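Consider the following assembly input.
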Amino acid sequence: MANIQDVAKRAGVSISTVSRVFNGTATVSAEIALRVRNAAQELQYQPSRAARALRANRSTIIGLLISDIQNPFFSSLIRGVEDVVQSSGYSLILCNSDENPDKERQYVEVLCAERVAGIIIVPTREHQRSLRLFRDREIPVVAVDRRVKDHSTDAVLVDNVRGAREGVAHLIANGYQRIGVITGPVSTTTGRERLLGYRQALEQAGIVHDPLLERCGSFKEHSGQQLADELLDLEEPPDALFVCNNLMTLGALEALHMRGRRVPEDMAVVGFDEMPWAALSSISLTTVTQPVYELGSTAALRLFQRLKSPNIFTRQEIVLAPMLCVRGSSRSRSAPMP
Ligand code: RIB
């Protein structure tokens, strides 16, 4: 692969002139800039972003602030981010907010102090002010998985409303009428939008939604178990559960297991997020899956677009498609056993 020396020789200029053309750190005549770019194109030269950042005295570190390091969903997201960061010659700092806004703000201040080149964040809340610390320091930010309510932060998301609507419509199509929902904090777009998709599915089927069947948890396993117990203890318990993330689905299945309830014979279940054990024949969980690796890699690519062209002023929102993976846990009771 051609290097900067090869380009300088081909263009008949110095190495520092080639560097100035690609860094934009000093003026170069149009004629020389054209000569350098033509030489680079002929040699298929790729200027190193990391080398460019170093010369421009900028960090070559990207900060990734996720909301729950114990949730396996985020390991695939982190992998997607890291692969892009590494291929760009940068390094990654990983931080975990534990769904705690105070801890999130502490890490925002640490990442600012470390003068990272850019940030990718899974925000703990849709309405929050701590990201302005990055804007004040002109550090580019991309939100992933969840959006923040401002007019400038890019976001890379999955269509949560559509995923939830399709998951609940599938239960209704299989004959379930009294569907309970366990979603995450409605202060997050994932929690709020999955509840919205649940309500849309009921409305489209002409089912009057019963607020007693709606519960908001913490996206953690224990809250899934506790809220499933509450729904099961209702005078009129649901005949199916729609649970809006992997850990809470695990908790809800535990609650059913502790009561000796069979799935789907006694209670149908649809989860959100793929889980390694979901396809096990003993569980065979129907779930709304997310393209998690692609979420991470797309967010990182968007961030590097901003690093390469700091003068991008338009906010971009990229929405990826969820996919319903149908298995045995949502089977119609009238369907023959497999
Ligand atoms: O389990 C992880 C998923 O649930 C993510 O979408 C996260 O935002 C939570 O909603």
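Residues 160-289+324-330 form a domain with the Rossmann fold fold (CATH 3.40.50.2300). Ask yourself how this observation constrains the way the partners meet.
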